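in:
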């Protein structure tokens, strides 16, 4: 017989707890599924809309998530045949790759110096660099446009290669500082004891451990470059030099005529490769950001 202060758990209590546990897990799964559907809803709508006929799209009583009429490839063909979409995609790719390389070359040494070299002004300088990222592009437009003209890069995608690092480098430095602080200094100090220089220790020891942070910075810098609109619109006019962020809307929005299906097709074609790459590096991407957030 249990004592007066003992807690007696009956079989009915266990069954009741098990039911509540299953109900809670089921509710969590339902919430996760609903959240996923809500997040994927715009992409699903865009993918369906890309193949809809005009009469199906513009008829208000039709369900936007199903094909009320037979789907068509006409609007995808319009995207490739009546616009320079392939050229826009190529320009976006090579500009993004060059900007990412420039960002890493400039941001990694700066972040390493601020995170590892003990200087009293290091913290304040890191904050100041991050504040540069917060300056609205419209305030820098005139000075940067004069720089582009002085270099003779107007109406050229090379102007974006020069300008975009002013956006990506400050925030990448800030992010890399947080990632570097997660790596103990003892590791590179031991490498220097073994005969490596500081640069050698950074390249051979720190860089491999910093890989999740580097992946996060690469993905962030590339997506930021690919989605930028103001500078790309202001500095480039010829269609052959445009990137996707400006080429697609300027070619597919003509006055008050919107080629909605072709616009959605371009969005899907751009989003799918980025989503695939993002998924492949998802673990490293999340690890980099969570480590930087915890120790930054």
């Amino acid at each position: 017989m249990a004592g007066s202060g003992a807690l007696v758990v009956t079989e009915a209590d266990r069954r009741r707890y098990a039911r509540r546990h299953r109900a809670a897990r089921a509710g969590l799964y339902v919430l996760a599924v609903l959240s996923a559907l809500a997040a994927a809803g715009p992409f699903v709508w865009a993918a369906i809309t890309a193949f809809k006929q005009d009469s199906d799209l513009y008829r208000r009583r039709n369900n936007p998530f199903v094909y009320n009429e037979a789907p068509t490839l006409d609007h995808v063909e319009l995207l490739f045949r009546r616009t320079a979409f392939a050229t826009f995609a190529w320009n976006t790719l090579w500009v993004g790759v060059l900007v990412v390389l420039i960002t890493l070359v400039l941001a990694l040494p700066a972040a390493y110096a601020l995170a590892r070299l003990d200087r009293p002004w290091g913290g304040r300088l890191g904050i100041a660099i991050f504040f540069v990222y917060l300056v609205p592009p419209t305030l820098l437009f005139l000075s940067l446009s004069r720089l582009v003209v002085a270099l003779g890069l107007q109406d050229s995608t090379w102007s974006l290669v020069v300008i975009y690092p002013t956006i990506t480098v400050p925030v990448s430095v800030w992010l890399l500082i947080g990632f570097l602080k997660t790596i103990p200094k003892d590791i590179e100090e031991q490498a220097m004891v073994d005969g490596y220089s500081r640069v050698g220790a950074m390249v051979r020891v720190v860089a491999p451990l910093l890989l999740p942070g580097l992946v996060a910075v690469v993905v962030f810098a590339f997506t930021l470059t690919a989605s930028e609109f103001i500078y790309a619109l202001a500095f480039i006019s010829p269609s052959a030099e445009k990137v996707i962020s400006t080429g697609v809307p300027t070619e597919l929005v003509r006055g008050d005529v919107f080629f909605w299906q072709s616009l959605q097709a371009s969005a899907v074609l751009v989003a799918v490769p980025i989503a695939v790459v993002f998924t492949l590096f998802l673990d490293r991407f999340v690890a980099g950001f969570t480590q930087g957030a915890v120790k930054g």
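note: The beta strands are 253-254, 257-258.
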